[in-house]
Amino acid sequence: QNDSSFTFVLFGGTGDLAMRKILPALYEAHKGGMLDESGKIVAVARVAHDKAEYLQWIEEHVRGHVPKSDFDETVWQGFLSRIEYVQLDLSKQGDFVLLRDQLLALPSGIRVFYLATGPSLFVPICRALADVGLNEGARIVLEKPLGYDLASSNAINDAVGEIFAEEQIYRIDHYLGKESVQNLLALRFGNVLFEPLWRREWVESIQITIAEELGVEGRGDFYNQTGALRDMVQNHLLQLLSIVAMEPPHAIESDSVRDEKLRVLRSLKPVQRGDISKVAVRGQYHAGVIRGTHVPAYAAEKGVPPDSSTETFVALKVEIENWRWAGVPFFLRTGKRLADRVAEIVVNFRQVPHPALGNMPAGQNRLVIRLQPNESIRLYCQAKQPGEGWDLAQVHLDLAFDQFFKENRMEAYQRLLLDVINGRLALFVRRDEQEAAWRWVEPILDEWATQNKGPKPYAAGTWGPAAASAMLAQHGTCWLEEE
Ligand code: BG6
């Protein structure tokens, strides 16, 4: 028995996610020598008949998703030699018996079942695996979206929880796999400089933005039932918020990070239905121009009904009800077809308590943490303008991470897949976190579903509806790009 050997069983083996993310990430891990020699990847799907046909599919669909600079024919062939294939019809229990027999014939070791399928298949697959005894000792990976609301996510978690213990369940939020997001923990808890200032006494407001230039990319059908609040806020943005706001954890590789994130999620001030229009703005893009290219309106995308009221943009004001953060607004924002692709956290510090040098210029100390692209940190400070007087001007200290670290950044999926194989749960979402996030989001979803006014329009290539700026103006602040 080799303890680090593994079998990685990929349901949805011919799906979009397998093609774009999972198989390329496994290739990279293989190339980097991070996978045990004897580890096998068993793809499961319905369409390909046999292994030869599946390998043909990989050649045609996956090869092109590996960055050219990382591609090496010999390494690729070695990677392909790890792959097995099982054709499986989910409705046939007999197919799961065949799957079990094939798995039993492989070297023993960790067994991972990755469900890169729609959430409606999670429970049937888990039950069928349990019926043939494959749940024992295995790890199961669930992709987002995990449900549609609190009730459906609870239903999935309850059913999966009857078959797998919580320590066997790896719920993916790929933002947690990003190097830059992990670096947030390093910034906060690997330095003494920031921590004493990271609280209501010194922080005036915080902004967290995940802006995309892309539209719905052929996923109109799926997206139209989802919308930005479910697609980005319930998971990625609330995870970022909880990392920014959490108390120092006891240790990183344990449940303590997840415990601290949970405390933040449970401290979010519940949104009262009557207040929703004051603290939440939803938008939908119209036609516009992004970097010189004309792009169509959301409602004209394939799979989207012309009268759709699905939001492609959300801005929120969130409050955290605890001693550290009472009264500090956190502004969250995400949208498709915005002016730029950027994920950024802005910490606005308070003004100096007394302007000893005379008039202070507008603006204050501010820390801008750019997660992507081009991870960087910029700290804005005041400096004296050269000359006779005491005029101050804003200057900044910059840290670009690629100047320090020349090695390639691991893709989020690669990191997370390695964590699953190595049994590291810290970067996966625990059930209670997920539940707390749904619980907070749900009143907004409910209110929007019953309101008869739809999302506010914004032109593609802009920063969203004007109401998102007005919301910040009420707090005497503005989004970073409006400075
Ligand atoms: C996914 C969403 O979870 O995250 C997509 O479903 C979105 O709609 C994507 O485009 C953004 O991820 P990234 O890593 O490109 O910022």
From TrEMBL:
Q: What is its EC number?
A: 1.1.1.49
Task: Locate the residues binding NADP(+).
Answer: 46, 89-90, 144
Q: Which reaction does it catalyse?
A: D-glucose 6-phosphate + NADP(+) = 6-phospho-D-glucono-1,5-lactone + NADPH + H(+)
Indicate which residues the UniProt annotation says bind substrate: 174, 178, 212, 231, 336
Any Gene Ontology biological process: pentose-phosphate shunt, oxidative branch
What is any one of the record's Gene Ontology cellular component terms?
Answer: cytosol
Q: Does the keyword Nucleotide-binding apply?
A: no
The chain positions of domain Glucose-6-phosphate dehydrogenase NAD-binding read: 9-183
Q: Where is the active site?
A: 236
User: How would you classify this enzyme at the top EC level?
Assistant: oxidoreductase
InterPro entries in the cross-refs: G6P_DH, G6P_DH_AS, G6P_DH_C, G6P_DH_NAD-bd, NAD(P)-bd_dom_sf
Q: In which pathway does it act?
A: Carbohydrate degradation; pentose phosphate pathway; D-ribulose 5-phosphate from D-glucose 6-phosphate (oxidative stage): step 1/3
Q: Name one GO molecular function term.
A: NADP binding
Q: Where is the Glucose-6-phosphate dehydrogenase C-terminal domain?
A: 185-479
Does the record carry Transmembrane helix as a key word?
A: no
The UniProt keywords, alphabetically, are: Carbohydrate metabolism, Glucose metabolism, NADP, Oxidoreductase
Q: What role is this protein assigned? A: Catalyzes the oxidation of glucose 6-phosphate to 6-phosphogluconolactone.
Provide the family line: Belongs to the glucose-6-phosphate dehydrogenase family.
Q: Kindly give the HAMAP family that the UniProt entry links to this protein.
A: G6PD
Fetch the NCBIfam families from UniProt. PRK12853.1-3 (NF009492), zwf (TIGR00871)
Q: What name has this protein been given in UniProt? A: Glucose-6-phosphate 1-dehydrogenase
